[in-house]
User: Fold these one by one.
Assistant:
Number 1:
Amino acid sequence: MKKIILFLSIVFVVNAIYAQNHDADSVKKSKLRHELGFAVGTTTGMGFSYRCLIKNFGIQINCVPLVMRDGRDVTVSNGLTLFYKISSASSKTFELNLYFANSAIYRNYETNYYYQEVRETTKWNSGLGVDFKLFASPNLSFDLMIGYGQYDNFNSMLPAAEAAMFFILNRNKHHH
């Protein structure tokens, strides 16, 4: 698990550096947008987030490890979300996307019962819905995602809600 987290961290840093090293002309010509931020959702997972959009398609990765009680309670949330842009490219303040999200929540913890026992669970969640993206500035956006999802390996089906804040590393002023 540590190798996966290290790998994702390296990918985030390399993409951020790559996006910032583009000169102004190549960014204007590109239809590629990189975003870094923080997201939390019932089907997208939660944590540090990277989003890459290419023309009308996008992908988002969320991940965060949580370690509590001196390492006796470890939770890792991972999420992968796919996007399809349905709004027109002319709006500079608003974007509308369809999304399909998958997340896994792994937990390894000790019980507090009379007999100490270690338990391990993995829950899979997924959902479909609409992503409302508001550009607060040229380099900052907020997302609110609303849809319907399945939880805990299809043990329940309920509405889904997600929220995110992203710093846009290379927003193309003509195509976003």
Number 2:
Amino acid sequence: MHPQIFLESPFQLLKEIDEGKENYQTKYNWDLSYESVEAFLTKLHCGDLRALGRFVQVEGMMTSSKILGERVFNEFEAYKKFILPVKRKRMEVLWKNLKNLGLISQKKQFQHP
């Protein structure tokens, strides 16, 4: 996934790999919390914290930050409750370490479109 593609249009991801739609469904919407993968991507694109938490849980914090930018770090405290406990604990350690090293800049939160 290329960051620019996602930022321009969340649906471009599905257009590029049309045959992989079932894989996206399994990867991001395994429990059918969203009516479709497109609904999940729309929520993620619009800044929904639950969708952001799920994306970070699946992709990991560093990969997610390459795709979604600094909001992955800046909004961590707000969306971490949506990440499963074991992964959340690991990410909390990583986040605290990055913050203590000064690698996370505390900018204002993502502005929803």
Number 3:
Amino acid sequence: MNRPTEVSADRSSWRWLLAQLAVVFLGVYSAFFLDGCRERAEMSQRREQIVNMLAQDFADAAEQVDVALVDFDYRFAQFFTEYEAGKRPYLRPIPLPTLESIDTWGSILAAGGLELLDVELIREIEKALYRVKPLAAAARDYNAYVREILVPALDRPQAEFYRDDGRVQNKYLWYVLYLEGFRRGLVDMGVSTRELDARLALRVTEH
């Protein structure tokens, strides 16, 4: 006689259990959903911070290159003018600026921030840095030659530095070649750095 009541009680128990499972499922789903939203927001914020840092770094780098180029021409323009005219100018032991590579880029790589940047931007940055590293290495090599070869010979007669045709002796030919190559490198690096600086600045405004 009590069977219908028992069946009704069983159904109520199942409904209550299903309701509890639904609440648990919705709670877990909501937690995952909120975590996903928070993670995406944090990634977006971090990406924005990285772009801002890179924009500032390359803006500083573009300015550094412009200053280095003006300084180079101020220091060495007279030498090349006289050298091309066959006047055998004095080889002055003036060091080249040691250009530093972009610090933020190395920090981003070390912190695992590479995955936050798109492939196109990474390629543009690597292209710009490709010009910085060999130029900085050339400046270091030139400065070492100045210390080790040129400075010890400064007390010698100026005629010993030149051949009869007015060209620099082979022993000191590195002086001319490094200076010519360094200036070309500065010009090329200035162009690529300013282009990247403009693109990064545009990305900052888009954010």
